[in-house]
């Protein structure tokens, strides 16, 4: 698989960066509950969301990060909310939730009821608001990768005769969204993706085989979905991808090293940067980084956990960065939490104070390692 090397060096991802989602303030949680109960209007909820996002952006700036997000404050899920906004996709109340390590999410699912496409999307308006309040900071948008629809959605019969045809439509839909969001001023887009982790363990690969698919061919299809979706992005638009093993109430869904798919991930994806989990031994070591074959690919090391409040020993974090630098140039490396702080509106089991301490911890360590102000 060929990978296009970009000539222009991008500033983002930044040496001290973050994945994007933040704990929902109690005021916002209460407002969303009131809206669900019909106690306030949609406009009243939107006003509260706006006010809390303004506060969040200021807190991100105060913490020293250079790219700001809206924290997913308008979403319940990191993925379903976006995917339901595509043509031909609907949400529904599932029989059960997604299972994590000892816990289960609320019941929710998505299904493909027609041809997948892009006409318009509410998150374009969401980004417009963020861009308007970002000021000198970079406004970063995070959306699920196209692979999440492929992996998570049920399909009504008679709509798609093959996976390849579905991916063709998915690619066209994402290309349309990316074109529109670029017009709104988005220059930093992040694709969040838990599907790759399915390939990291024998259990995950077996689950693919149980559905009658060949894991190698599915991985090729997933890589094609990513590469073709972002192929037409303008030269000054940065696209990164966050690879996650699950993040719900400080638990996880899967484990396994990147090694099982390292050549595809590090040598076959045409993204500008990869946000990678390395906060515990579930992710394995840095050896798979030897497959990085581009000098313009940023590797964002998720060495700071968002799951627990205790701060990591900064010297140990610096030592791990140096260890990773034996496989990839230090100039290509960056630092971040391994995931967001609230992939769903429930959030991880940490306090807001601990959350901001983690963000500042990332920024401070990055400034020391790369001597960036």
UniProtKB/TrEMBL annotation:
Domain Cobalamin-independent methionine synthase MetE C-terminal/archaeal as annotated: residue spans: 19-367
Gene3D superfamilies (UniProt xref): 3.20.20.210
Tree of life domain: Bacteria
SUPFAM superfamilies in alphabetical order: UROD/MetE-like
Coiled coil spans: none
InterPro entries for this protein: Met_Synth_C/arc (IPR002629), UROD/MetE-like_sf (IPR038071)
GO biological-process terms attached to the record: methionine biosynthetic process; methylation
GO molecular function: 5-methyltetrahydropteroyltriglutamate-homocysteine S-methyltransferase activity; zinc ion binding
Keywords: Methyltransferase, Transferase
Name of the protein this chain belongs to: 5-methyltetrahydropteroyltriglutamate--homocysteine methyltransferase
Source organism: Halobacillus dabanensis
